[in-house]
Amino acid sequence: MFSNVFKSLKSRLLVTLIGVGLLPLLILLSYSLFLSQKKMTHQIVQEEYERSHVIVRLIESDLYALEREVAFLAKLDVMDDILVEDLDQRIVRLLQQKVYDTNASMNYYLYSTKEKLIAHAPRNSDHALDLDLKIFETKPYVIKNGKLYMATKVSASFDRSRDIGTLVLEYDLRNLERYLVKSEHVHSYLLHVSSDETVGHKVQAPLTLSEEKHSDIDANYVSVYEKMSGVLEGWYLVYRVDKGVALGTLYDYVWFILMAAMSMIIAVLVLSHYFSKMIVAPIARFTEVIQEISSRQNYARRVSFDAYEEVEQLSTAFNTMLETTECALHALSLENQERLKRLTQLIEIFNSISTTETVNVCTTLAIQEISNILVTTELSFSQEENSTQEGVYKDLYVMDFEQEKRIFFGRLYFGNHQFTHAYEQDLFDAMTNMMILQVERILLKERTHTMSEAKSSFISSMSHELRTPLNAIMSATQYMLVYETLSEDQVDTVANIASSAEYLLEMINNILDVAKIEAGKMEVSLEPCRLRSLITSSCTMLELLAQEKGLAFSLQFDVAEVLQVETDARYFQQILVNLLSNAIKFTEAGYIKVALYQEADQVVVSIKDSGVGISPSDLKNLFQAFVQVDNLMQKKHKGSGLGLSLSRKIGKEIGANVVLESKGLGEGTEAKIYITVLSDSSQIS
Amino acid sequence: MKQLGMVLLALVISASHLSAQEYAVVSFSPLPSLKRFQVKAIFLKKMTYLDGVHLIAVNLPPDHNARKSFEKSCLQMGRSRLREYWTKAHYLGHRPPLRKDSLESVQRFLNTVEGTVSYLPIEEVAQSMNILYRWSD
Lengths: 685, 137
Known about the structure:
The structure holds two protein chains of two kinds. Helices cover 51% and strands 20% of the residues of chain A. Chain A is of the alpha+beta class. In chain A, a hairpin with a 3-residue loop joins strand 8 (215-217) and strand 9 (221-227). In chain A, helix 9 packs across helix 14 and helix 11 (569-585) packs antiparallel against helix 14 (643-654). Chain B has one domain: Periplasmic binding protein-like II (D-Maltodextrin-Binding Protein, domain 2). In chain B, the strands form two sheets. Chain B has a five-stranded mixed sheet, with helices on both faces. The A-B interface holds A 77, 80-81, 83-85, 87-88, 90, 156-159 and B 54, 56, 95, 98-102, 104-105, 108-109, 112-113.
């Protein structure tokens, strides 16, 4: 299937253009959809991570600042007032100011070394710290119930080695919510993994935090998280964004890329189709013009395309080819006419030569025509083999059919004529061969005619010479048969002699008739005859023979009494009697039916019997002279085998056609005589 | 008239003598009496130990009369001069004496922290306090 597709230039161009157009697009699309998408996702996650990292740093920084602040406060000289139980309320004021400056939910507690609460801020907070200060002996800060506790030992400013109290900061971790985000699509919170304690709004969707990575993308959220250090050691900042929001830009980008790709694919397909069609269009038009030229044989037509340089060059070359073809066809046409003319001449010459009756006329005419065709006057013919004439010549030989070898007929001299072309030589050879053939035909005809005349003359003479003594024999036997003194055996012998003589005379007469016909000496007298009367008289003559054999004899006429045909009545009757005799002779039982009817412009005389019949193979040879069918009946009835042959030959002379039909041995035979009806007598009864 | 003028002057002088405030540099630590220059050295943090006791000087607020009197009589240094001094001392790693905002606080501090040396109006000095130096306006 693809091989058929790629046979088309348009298909190839289309596939190539689409391939060239789509390949970079597909590469770009693949890059955009896969690699780019992966990169963008990574970048988005990284950005979210950076954002959360900044928040982590801010929180850590904030808490570190608090830690430093507490430490700083603990080192202030005013803290010495612990020793005087802050009688001047300076520490309280200081702590209150710090709380106020910090602007956060937080409390300061200052305890003396005897764990007596010296000062706390703000004033309205609970005075008691629900915490055992000993916990700070192992670690400086504690997170409990959502609050961060930072504690610092306070030393006397005048003697840093002397602890005078403990400063505790109670910091509500909800203060850190200002760093967290709680919106419809974005949530961030602090999560303590082991205690599942959280700060901020925790998203209930499950999230597994891993040490190895810092992000996770599930069906609903893009989550980034970072482990915190310092005060919030063991805590994570979790930053979760609705996937649709986080990757919204990416989705928009992918959608845009897909739409752009679809548009570009459609554009590539349309442009490829357009350009392939545009490129192939001149070729298609070129093909149409060529087909038009081919179908109309209009080689005068010229093509003109200025679409591309190549097509223009092609059209120019094609026009040149058309001009050449047109010239060639014109030359071919002229040459064809010339050859036709020459062929006509040759046919005429051959007709002229073939109609010549004598050798001299034939040779003279042939030499003259050859001279005309070769346009030379130097051609001459001589029947002398030892001629002294000089120049180029060709000896001609003819077939001697008597000796069955070729004998010298004559010599054709060319003089100084030179054959300019091979076809001239071929023409000359053909004409001389034609002349030789005609000469041979004439010679053969003359010889045949002579032999036929000799044969006819011989047969006529022989017949005549045979009939004369045969007549004497017949006369003598007739005389002896009526002589009373002969014994009965002698009469039988003489009767046999008479019978044999009659048979011999009939045969001689038949041979004589055949000879006459073949010699063309048969004289027929064609004149209008009434067939019915001719047939009636013949049937009357032979009906008795049929009746003697016990055969049913019928005669039926389906034509008018006045129906006439132009024929020789004597010979017609001879044919009819011959056929009737054969029918009676070869029918042992049954019937003989004679009928006369008309078929178109011919009248048919049918003699049908129920006799022995003829096989199809024998039917073909029956009209040849001296041929008889070899059957039992034939053995009973002597014959020369000339009857049917003679009947047909006579029929041809008198305008009648004799036909014999049989369905096979034992199926009877039907002999028909066809003869043309005279037009003014064709009245059917 | 001349006699009247002399009488008035005598009255004023006697009145001023009658209203003069007396102060004392005190400590609960067993310290010997001090000379003015010793008191000055303690409060300028030139002297931090005395008889094996780590001395901790405690001031009253700058606007307190006792402090004004102390600076005038004992230190004999004006406020600007003192500021200049502590500015230089700050860069040498010394800090001014501690300050308490009330006499009660000073008294509590004196009672609480050994080696504390401060000054009080004489009427605020307790029986148990050791008076190291006295002066009056």
